[in-house]
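Example 284.
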Amino acid sequence: MPLIEVKELSFSYEKSSNLKKQDLSNINLNINRGEIIGLIGPSGSGKTTLVQQIGGLLRPDHGTVLFDGLDIFKDSKVFRKLRYKIGLVFQNPEEQLFSETIFKDIAFGPHNMGLSRDNIAKRVLEAINFVGLDKSILSKSPFEISGGEKRRVAIAGVIAMRPEILILDEPTVGLDFEGSRSILSYIKQYNRENKNTLILISHNMDDIINLTDKVAVMSAGEIKAFGKTGKIFADPVLLHSLKIDVPEITKIMKKLKEKGFNLKDSVFTEREALQEILRLKYTI
Ligand code: ADP
Ligand code: MG
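Predicted structure in complex with adenosine-5'-diphosphate:
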């Protein structure tokens, strides 16, 4: 059984008008336990709206979301049981830090779960460790730390609830290269160590290719393609028709090929590029 099953889901923000546009229409999506799913598509295509439905924050007009076979919208009892199992990190989550100390901010979720003081402290330490921050930061105020640190603290606050699925809505947006790399590396490690399920929304195709097993491509409220990441990015016709950007390394390799180097057509990772360049030594 898939961990998450989105079934024939449709949704409009506008409920009254006859001319209402469908912000999500007939979405079907199965996510298996342990998978890392990338969600891509242009701004306004419905990515955030879809993950808010999966997180139970917005109720679909039609269709539903099943978690482990349970309809999350069935009744409040089911929802209460599931709400901590689905961890949603909003876009720019650092804007929601509000406590006097980092400790209190990360402890907020575990506290609401009704855990004991000892357990809460344990969860907070575990989470701060996961996002690569030193525990000395816990006594600071959110106003005293950098933007990248705030982002990590906000993610730690969700990880501290130990959700079975972690959903990250553009986790690296606005961060510099180093900040992005470190956030992605611990997300990868988190998935490896916990074998938990992940949905990553991103506009950075390098990150999508390096991190995800499968990718869903959205456009105008629909999922236009869903499949193994390698397969989706190896299909130039599909990439072109859905206007999917390609990684920087792919662009660089294409330019070199145009300059006359004997390189293969589509190279998507830095590792592949290195292999191709090393292979050149036999031909130049
Ligand atoms: P994405 O995350 O892919 O950029 P969104 O899910 O934010 O896309 O938006 C999907 C569509 O829903 C867009 O047309 C957007 O304008 C609309 N939308 C998003 N949030 C709201 C809202 N709170 N009220 C009304 N319309 C919204
Ligand atoms: Mg969005």
